[in-house]
Amino acid sequence: MTTELQTERQGQTLVMTLSGPANRNALSPQVYAAGIETLNMAESNPDVRAVVLTGSGDHFCAGGDLQRLAHNRQHDLQAQGGNLDAFHQWIEALRSFPKPVIAAVEGVAAGGGVSLALACDLIVASESARFVMAYGKVALSPDGGASWHLNKLLGRSRALACLWLGEQQSAQQWQSLGLVHKLVQAGSALTQACALADQLAQVAPQVLASVKELVNEADQPLRAHLDAEKRHFLVNLSHPDAGHAIDGFLQGKSRP
Description:
By secondary structure, the chain is an alpha/beta fold. The chain folds into two domains: 4-200, 2-enoyl-CoA Hydratase, Chain A, domain 1, CATH 3.90.226; 205-254, Orthogonal Bundle (Lyase 2-enoyl-coa Hydratase, Chain  A, domain 2). 51% of the residues lie in helices and 16% in strands. It contains eleven helices and nine strands. The strands form two sheets. The protein has a six-stranded mixed β-sheet with strand order 1-2-3-4-6-9, sandwiched between helices. Strands 5-7-8 form a three-stranded mixed β-sheet. A hairpin with a 2-residue loop joins β1 (4-10) and β2 (13-19). α1 (29-44) runs parallel beside α3 (77-96), α5 (146-154) crosses α6 (156-165) and α9 (205-216) packs antiparallel against α10. The chain is globular, with a radius of gyration of 20 Å. It starts with a strand and ends with a helix.
């Protein structure tokens, strides 16, 4: 049974749900295409202020469908590469999406499912959530930007250990490593992720977009990054939202 991507609006938040509980929401090219299309529509809709990505049933995402991967071994490398390209386009779309993207993780996130969670801006995980980079157990190397994200977030040594050993790690361990933003009670990850999205919706959308772009580009030399900060700062300073917010702050501060 192929996983589908279902969407639902909850206020100003668009919830994307990986729906294939029979196979732990394993990924497929159909899901990649639907994910990119959904993000494109959400970006152009000003009423959508944030996106939450979650999985149906008891788990977030088991990663790639091993039966499909076994079948793909019969095809030439170009055909197999096309599927990876589609997955990676979705990863890039999540990273560059100008609005906050929050992963709500219950149960297991494995392989490409971990890559998907890492591509989101923030992870809200239940206390019972588990993360495992199990590529090595099936003689595969990572995809979906897992090695890139883990190296940046954990450093080279920890990233290598995580990817080589493929040991299951708890949500508590991931929080201690700074990978999980918020740890919540089992069964409440989606609710808490939507609450976080509502909190972020109180920030001016152009500011959220500026901050995300600046953080995404923080690898550039300091001089170039200072120039980028200057450019974003001046654009946001000239926006009416800044005028209203600054006036409101000053008026409130001047009250006895």
